[in-house]
Amino acid sequence: MSHFRLKLITLGLAVLAGCSGGTGSEHTGQSCQVVADCYPGVSQSLLGQVTCLANVAGGYCTHTCQTDSDCCAVAGECRTGLPQLCAPFESTGANYCFLSCEDTVFDAGATDTTAYCHQYASSSFTCRSTGGGSANRKVCMP
């Protein structure tokens, strides 16, 4: 078994152990009702404005970004090694950080993107498009 695959399995077990109510252990993607629910203890240092996407079922904690490297850029922002990306969301005109389910998860041993989202993000998440027009990307969301 490759070192990377073993690391991903270990990470997955850690994520599953840390799950509470099916919301995963990452700040990004946590359920929220208001911005204050998101990124406790790290929101002041993030490379973008913290946002609770209220038009996502149960809310979705995220922050604005310009590039993928803006996601997980500061200490404490990301608690696992789950890949994140920066993408436009629906017709908001802004880019946000999301939990990724793009083809790179297949490189990590996943065989189905929705199963990947269920296992590593939340049992209520599926792999879907951000709906950001020609720049949309695949992300784990409810």
Could you explain the architecture of this structure?
By secondary structure, this protein is α+β, with helices and mostly antiparallel strands. The protein has helices at 3-18, 104-107, 113-120, and strands at 50-52, 61-63, 84-88, 95-99, 126-129, 138-141. The protein has one domain (26-141). The protein has a two-stranded antiparallel sheet with strand order 1-2. A two-stranded antiparallel ribbon has the order 3-4. It has a two-stranded antiparallel sheet with strand order 5-6. A hairpin with an 8-residue loop joins strand 1 and strand 2.
Low-pLDDT residue intervals, each spanning 5 or more residues: 1-23
Radius of gyration: 14 Å
Following the backbone from N to C, one meets helices and strands in this order, namely HEEEEHHEE
Measured by DSSP, the beta-strand proportion falls in 15-25%
Largest sheet: 2 strands, antiparallel
Question: Can you tell me the overall shape?
Answer: globular
Question: Please, what is the average pLDDT?
Answer: 80
The number of strands is 6
